[in-house]
Amino acid sequence: MDFIFRPIGKLLFELFRAIGLFAYRLSGWKVEGALPPTDKFVVIAAPHTSNWDLPFMLGVALFFRVHLKWMGKAELFKPPFGWFMRALGGIAIDRSKANDVVSQMVDIYNAADRLAVAIPPEGTRAKVRYWKTGFYNIAHVAGVPIALGFLDYKRKVGGIGMTFYTTGDYDADLAVIKKFYSGVTGKFPPDAA
């Protein structure tokens, strides 16, 4: 958002950030990790098991001073709250028809000077057997790294665990990525259902 860099906008952003981080800490959460050493990256938002993931993820983004975009189902962007979801950085994805989301997002990355987009690889809050490949393909084709973002509800810690650069070997890369997430507990772990 360009307004953040204007003096009054920057002041309002810092005020909003201070309030947001106070609420984050008040809820008992803390942040770990570091941003990737680049201005453009994809953020894996995992595990995604609850609607609470969005505010906690945005708390992590406030901590790192990143204007995080995030992909969500189109239904979230309908009136009366659609404007609010877009203001929070939401990008509507219509899952009812085949769209070339990867190409669209790659074009957006190529046109941007700075961009961080959070993508839940599960594609839903429900338990899934396989992760969707969109986050990987967007990062690989756009030539940007993947930040392994996480929300560990067991430890009450959110953050970025590491930065991962794709090799083009999806299966091998996914094994490394999933190994990182094996110790992270979502709000509703799959075995709790």
Largest sheet: 7 strands, mixed
Estimated structural class? alpha/beta
**Average pLDDT value?**
86
The number of helical elements comes to: 6
| C-alpha end-to-end distance | 39 Å
> Would you list the SSEs in sequence order as H and E?
HEEHEHEHEHEEH
Give the tally of β-strands: 7
What is the beta-strand fraction?
15-25%
As laid out across the biggest beta sheet, the strand order is 1-7-6-2-5-3-4
**Helicity, in percent?**
25-40%
In brief:
This protein has 193 residues and is α/β, with parallel strands linked by helices. Helix content is 36%, strand content 21%. The chain has helices at 7-26, 53-64, 82-87, 101-111, 134-142, 170-181; strands spanning 30-33, 40-46, 69-73, 90-93, 115-119, 146-152, 157-164.
Can you describe what's shown?
The protein has 193 residues and is α/β, with parallel strands linked by helices. It has one domain (28-192). Helix content is 36%, strand content 21%. It has helices at 7-26, 53-64, 82-87, 101-111, 134-142, 170-181, and strands at 30-33, 40-46, 69-73, 90-93, 115-119, 146-152, 157-164. The protein has a seven-stranded mixed sheet, with helices on both faces. Helix 1 (7-26) crosses helix 2. The longest helix has 20 residues, at 7-26.
